């Protein structure tokens, strides 16, 4: 071998080795990069799943909070309902006392009872109690209780003609229907017309 050939071969071997090392390092870097990209993608998917779960939890919590707020408002709103129901018979008794004292001619007593009833009614109305209108209106089974009825000849629908006991609503809900006497609508013939 010639004297410079061995050095050249070593230099070529070193170059080949160096090139191989660089190629292996490049492949390793590419593999590492692919591995990192996969890991990054997996972490991105995992983060998106966590974010979606968080949003669902947040929505569930918001719905729960709204439901609890509504239940609390309703509980507060109707907390006096039991007391109101207990006081309705007191109004009935006061109405009876007024009617009795008026018939007996005791004007002073009658006026006193009327004032007491008016004051009690004012307090109850401020809390949400309302009398149900009945007389002269069409019969409504959701607010009226028919305790007596008779066949009519004039009206095209069942009408309340007398109120036997006052009915009340509390904040829009019926707490006691009005006990009423109903004039039934005039009979209709088979074809929907009144008989001749």
Indicate the CATH topology of the largest domain: Nucleotide Exchange Factor Grpe, Chain A, domain 2
Q: Would you report the number of β strands?
A: 6
What profile does the largest beta sheet have?
3 strands, antiparallel
Mean pLDDT rating: 85
Total count of domains: 3
CATH superfamily of the largest domain: Head domain of nucleotide exchange factor GrpE
What would you say about this model in short?
With 196 residues, this protein is of the alpha+beta class. It has helices at 3-77, 81-104, 107-127; strands at residues 129-131, 144-151, 159-165, 168-170, 173-176, 178-184. The chain folds into 3 domains: 29-77; 80-127; 131-189, Nucleotide Exchange Factor Grpe, Chain A, domain 2 (Roll), CATH 2.30.22.
Description:
It contains 3 helices and 6 strands. With 196 residues, it is of the alpha+beta class. The protein has 3 domains: 29-77; 80-127; 131-189, Nucleotide Exchange Factor Grpe, Chain A, domain 2 (Roll), CATH 2.30.22. Strands 1-4-5 form a 3-stranded antiparallel sheet. β4 (168-170) and β5 (173-176) form a beta hairpin. It starts with a helix and ends in a 12-residue tail after the last strand. The relative contact order is 0.08.
């Amino acid at each position: 071998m010639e004297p410079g050939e061995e050095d050249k071969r070593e230099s070529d071997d070193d170059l080949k080795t160096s090139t191989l090392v660089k190629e292996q390092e490049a492949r390793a870097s590419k593999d590492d990069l692919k591995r990192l990209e996969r890991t990054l993608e997996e972490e991105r998917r995992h983060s998106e799943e966590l974010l979606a779960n968080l949003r669902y939890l947040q929505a569930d919590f918001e719905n729960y909070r709204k439901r609890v707020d509504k239940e609390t408002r309703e509980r507060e709103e109707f907390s006096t309902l039991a007391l109101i129901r207990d006081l309705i018979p007191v109004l009935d008794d006061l109405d009876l006392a007024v009617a009795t004292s008026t018939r007996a001619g005791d004007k002073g007593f009658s006026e006193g009872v009327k004032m007491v009833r008016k004051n009690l009614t004012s307090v109850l109305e401020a809390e949400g109690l309302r009398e149900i209108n009945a007389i002269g209106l069409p019969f409504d089974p959701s607010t009226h209780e028919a305790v007596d009825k008779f066949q009519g000849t004039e009206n095209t629908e069942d009408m309340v003609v007398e109120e036997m006991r006052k009915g009340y609503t509390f904040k829009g809900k019926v707490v006691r229907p009005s006990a009423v006497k109903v004039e039934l609508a005039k009979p209709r013939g088979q074809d929907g017309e009144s008989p001749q």
